[in-house]
Amino acid sequence: MPPIEQKSSSVDETPSNSAATMLKTPTSMKEFCEGLRTIFEDDFVDVDQVRSFMSSYDMTKDDAWKNYAIFDKYKYTRNLIDEGNGKYNLMILCWNEDQTSSIHDHADAHCFLKMATGTLVESLYSWPNDDEPMTCTKHSEVKTNQVAYINDTIGLHRMSNTSKTEKAVSLHLYSPPFQSCKAFNENNGKRIVCPVTFFTKFGQRTRPGRA
Ligand SMILES: [Fe+2]
Fold first, then answer.
1. Which SS3 state, helix, strand or coil, does residue 208 take?
2. Helices 47-56, 29-39: crossing angle, 10 deg rounding
3. Pairing of strands 200-201, 204-205
4. Residue 115: other Cβ atoms inside 10 A
5. What does pLDDT average to in each consecutive run of 10 residues of the chain (211 residues)?
6. How far is the CA of 141 from the centre of ligand 1 (A)?
7. Euclidean distance between the first and final Cα of the chain, in Å?
8. Which residue, among 42, 118, 138, 137, has the nearest Cα to 76 in the 3D structure?
9. What is the distance in A from the centroid of ligand 1 to the CA of 73?
10. Are 176 and 182 within 8 A, CB to CB?
11. How far is C-alpha 10 from the chain's CA centre?
């Protein structure tokens, strides 16, 4: 498993001077996916490089990701775009107004998030003690085209579309890919294992009840 770097979950939309700047700035979902494949040819995950490359993709000037933005009125959806040669899962999450995730971990993986449209609120939590209420340590907004990052050493989080009028769509990259994570009860810190399921894969609806 690639080493996880300790890094703030702060939002960043400014490309750094990393090697990612040597990659062509992606102008389409196809170029974006190709660039990610190139970056992840290396087994070491350079968090700054991935953040920088994701920041360079202006999703307001490309409509291709909308083919994967499939909503469900009952729950936010995960829609798989690319399995990244087994190195990562790239997916689109679709959030209706007022939809929210559980408080969850990321199964020892890197989690990169970029907003395609709308705004999500990230509520950050520390790992809980047994039978103690969980405390939110920080709220931050991730706005269209901004990139955020988290891993289990930074903490746990809940993502929410708090808007009453606007949907939100976010692009997520998890490396290495994982099939389950833990969801936490805010009142007592108790956790359950949750399978990571997809509403669609590669633009096609998955069979209900199956990952
Ligand atoms: Fe997450």
1. coil
2. 170
3. antiparallel
4. 22
5. 44 49 87 97 95 97 96 96 97 98 98 98 96 96 98 98 98 98 97 97 82 48
6. 14
7. 23
8. 118
9. 20
10. no
11. 14
- Structure token digits, residue 98: 């007022």
75 and 48 inside one domain: no
Task: For residue 126, give the CATH number of its domain.
Answer: 2.60.120.10
Tokens standing for residue 68: 């994967």
- Structural domain count of the chain: 2
> Which pLDDT score is estimated for 9?
52
Q: pTM, whole model, 2 decimals?
A: 0.89
| CA–centroid distance, residue 1 to ligand 1 (Å) | 19
Record the tokens describing residue 164, joined without a space: 């009453």
| Listed residue (47, 45, 56) closest to 22, CA to CA | 56
The answer to whether 95 and 167 have CB atoms below 8 angstroms apart is yes
User: What's the CA-to-centroid distance between 158 and ligand 1, angstroms?
Assistant: 7
Residue ranges making up the domain that contains 9: 5-61
Beta strands 120-125; 89-95: pairing state:
unpaired
pLDDT at 174: 98
157 Cα: distance to centroid of ligand 1 (angstroms): 6
| CA 67–ligand 1 middle distance (angstroms) | 22
Residues 72 and 161 in one domain: yes
Contact in structure between 96 and 76 (CB atoms under 8 Å): yes
